[in-house]
Design a protein that fits this description.
mainly alpha, transmembrane helix, 324 residues, 9 helices
Amino acid sequence: MNLATFGPHMALQSTAQRIEKLDPDHVEGASRTDGYHTFKGIRSQIVGSLSLIRLLGNIYFQHIPDERLMEVARLADALAADLLDAESFHRMQSKDEQRLNGLSAGINSKYLALFDKAAPIIATSNIQGINASELERHLKQAIADTETYRIKAEQLFNQQASFSIEQAVTKQAGHFSSEAAAHEKFAGRWLVASAVSASLVLAIAGYAAINPPEALVGNSPALTVLAFAPRFVVLSIAFYALSVCARNYRTSRHNFIVNRHRTIALNTFTVFTTTANDSRVKDAILAQAASTIFSPQPSGYSIDQAEPLPQATAVELIQRLAVK
């Protein structure tokens, strides 16, 4: 929309008409039946955005500088565009994760910006024509209400950010879980291969023990060694195959245990953070989870692995925070 052509008053009225028939449920995506992510985490911002834009379209602002109204009109137009895109996103049953996150962040940030710019103008328009004492009282109330809504909006934004972190943690836990399952499968196969190689070694050794040469070949030690050479070669190859299979089994088993430990750590972090209200407690739990993921973890299957350095547990970290 060309705001310079229409002017701020007509632009605000036109923006309000564009979103007049928008329903919060359709913008949020609550009516979707395919189980895909919705904007449930920012429903308050969606409802507040629709109400604020409609309110701005129904007020005729007097004695307000056009520059201020033009800035509000631009923000309202951009926010309305995101709301319409969100409704179209769900109506078309889209599953673009990047677009979903972009719209969610855009609606939240633009609603906060429009609220900060529009609240003083709305308050000023509502109190024109009253006496000085009432004006002061209304202004103080408007400022207090604005601060309250700002705090609530920040809380909602923080909740959305926390929800995004939990989604990322859950996704990473699923990655580690799939890695653990793959290594567990490989470990089972290498264990079977090790058993087969060991059986082959025993069979070759048993055959050599049961069928020894009765005497020296041609009464010559050199010829006798040559006669035994093929048996030694076959037995060496079997021992080498056994060592390779055993080493790969230990490696796969080690990777399985480490990735399973990481999965458990991330899942535990998600459970604790959803029940903990203190941000310091969440930070302590996150530090312990990060230590579990990025620090070498003993599994009992890695021969060359050194013993891990002693570290403070999550319980000890929380106790230290409680003392402070």
